[in-house]
Automatic annotation (TrEMBL):
Record-linked Pfam families: ABC_tran
Organism: Saccharomonospora azurea NA-128
Identification of the protein by name: ABC-type cobalamin/Fe3+-siderophore transport system, ATPase component
PANTHER family on file: ABC TRANSPORTER ATP-BINDING PROTEIN, HEMIN IMPORT ATP-BINDING PROTEIN HMUV
Keywords of this entry: ATP-binding, Nucleotide-binding, Transport
InterPro entries to which the protein is assigned, alphabetical: AAA+_ATPase, ABC_transporter-like_ATP-bd, ABC_transporter-like_CS, P-loop_NTPase
Regions annotated as coiled coil: none
Length: 258
């Protein structure tokens, strides 16, 4: 089953195209990492999939064209987390994660005991159970990122869109977050689309990389196919060596110019 399909998707701001003619498909349970240099259109493309900006072309989620969906219907299909989400300081972790249940509530209805149980289950899966009563402004960067992921998971959607989920995290916390996400993907069969600046992490966790530059698709494929020194020199203006781990994953290593 195709969980997500983009057919010639484009986005323009004030008449200026920033993303154009993007076509890609993703199977149920897959992981797509959108990569590219700054200003390539990665976050804009993610917002188009989430229905946050107008777009041309066609976006289909679980065989449903998103253009025909109401906002509430879209929110039951797609979970989205911005790169720098606004987190109300005095809200507790539990109350924040409960916001993920909003699309499933009737107008003016309150969360039920079942909603609260689902939230506590989500917190436990992300090792946030001991922090349930803590206010958001008391959390570390890694804990806040896990809280954001928990809020999205509480929506119980089949498609997760995460814009730079490792922003501000050191390598250990970033790896731990991606490992949790990959485990949840395997356990629940959810489909994941992320933007990632770290090309090595993108290649190690995502099934498919989509390289954008100036709003256009350069290439899509596995990390080994997409990440070449010549391609990164051309599109990132970076001098790198692409090494290989024992597991066969590419590692992008910057090289200081001679």
């Amino acid at each position: 089953m195709t969980a997500l399909r983009l057919d010639r998707v484009g986005v323009a701001y004030h008449g200026d195209p920033v993303v154009h003619d993007v076509s890609v498909g993703l199977a149920q349970g897959g992981w797509l990492a959108i990569v590219g240099p700054n200003g390539a259109g990665k976050s804009t493309l993610l917002k188009a999939i989430a229905g946050l900006v107008p777009h041309s072309g066609r976006i289909t989620v679980n065989d449903s064209p998103t253009e025909s969906l109401t906002r509430r219907q879209r929110a039951t299909l797609i979970g989205y987390a911005a790169q720098n989400p606004v987190l109300p300081d005095r809200l507790t972790v539990t109350d924040y994660v409960l916001l993920g249940r909003t699309p499933h509530l009737r107008p003016l209805a309150r969360e039920t005991a079942a909603d609260l149980a689902l939230v506590h289950e989500t917190l436990d899966r992300l090792d946030l159970g001991d922090l349930a009563g803590r206010e958001l402004d008391t959390l570390s960067g890694g804990e806040r990122q896990r809280a954001v992921l928990a809020r999205v998971l509480a929506q119980r959607t089949r498609l997760l869109l995460l814009d730079e989920p490792t922003t501000g995290l050191d390598i250990g916390h970033a790896q731990a977050l991606l490992e949790r996400l990959d485990r949840l993907r395997a356990e629940d069969g959810i489909t994941v689309v992320t933007t990632l600046h770290d090309l090595t992490f993108a290649a190690q966790y995502a099934d498919t990389l989509l390289l954008l530059d100036r709003g256009e698709v350069v290439v899509a494929g596995s990390g080994r196919d997409v990440l070449t020194a010549a391609r990164l020199r051309e599109h990132y203006s970076a001098e790198v060596e692409v090494l290989t781990t024992a597991a066969g994953h590419p590692v992008v290593a910057p090289v200081r110019p001679a």
